[in-house]
UniProtKB/TrEMBL annotation:
Protein name from the UniProt record: FABP6 protein
Matching Pfam families: Lipocalin_7
SUPFAM superfamilies according to UniProt: Lipocalins
Family to which this protein belongs: Belongs to the calycin superfamily. Fatty-acid binding protein (FABP) family.
Gene this chain is encoded by: Fabp6
Organism this protein belongs to: Lophotis ruficrista
Length: 131
């Protein structure tokens, strides 16, 4: 596909339905507080269908998922659980089935828009491009 649109660094700008969503997926309350309005910086390195997707949390903690479109990869959830998933590309969106939620990411108007859906609760996070 050669779509290099995802590469860059994005800083958290806003979200919707955070509390409902993290309760649905069973995040512990200390993690819920830590993540609320958290200025997460998402860094995406893209080389064709190969991605390295890193989230930098305030305080120096990072989570990195490395994956190739349409190939099974070892991934980690928001809560730090390890699992295997096959990440797909659908209509320019990255789609991953996490153990208890479906996650999509797309670039929309220069912003990174991520949507996670768990049992009918839709969590939307928007990040602005900073590099």
């Amino acid at each position: 596909q050669g779509n290099m649109a995802f590469a860059g660094k994005y800083e958290f700008e806003g979200d919707e339905n955070y509390d409902d969503f993290v309760k649905k997926i069973g995040l512990p309350s200390d993690k819920i507080e830590m993540g609320r309005n958290c200025k997460i910086v998402t860094e995406v390195v893209q080389n064709g269908n190969d991605f390295t997707w890193t989230q930098h949390f305030p305080g120096g903690r990072t989570t990195t998922n490395t994956f190739t479109i349409d190939k099974e990869a070892d991934m980690e959830t928001m809560g730090g659980k390890k699992f295997k998933a096959t990440v797909k590309m659908e209509n320019g969106k990255i789609v991953a089935e996490f153990p208890n939620y479906r996650h999509t990411a797309e670039i929309c108007g220069g912003k990174l828009v991520e949507i996670s859906t768990a049992s009918g609760v839709v969590y939307k996070r928007t990040s602005k491009k900073i590099a």
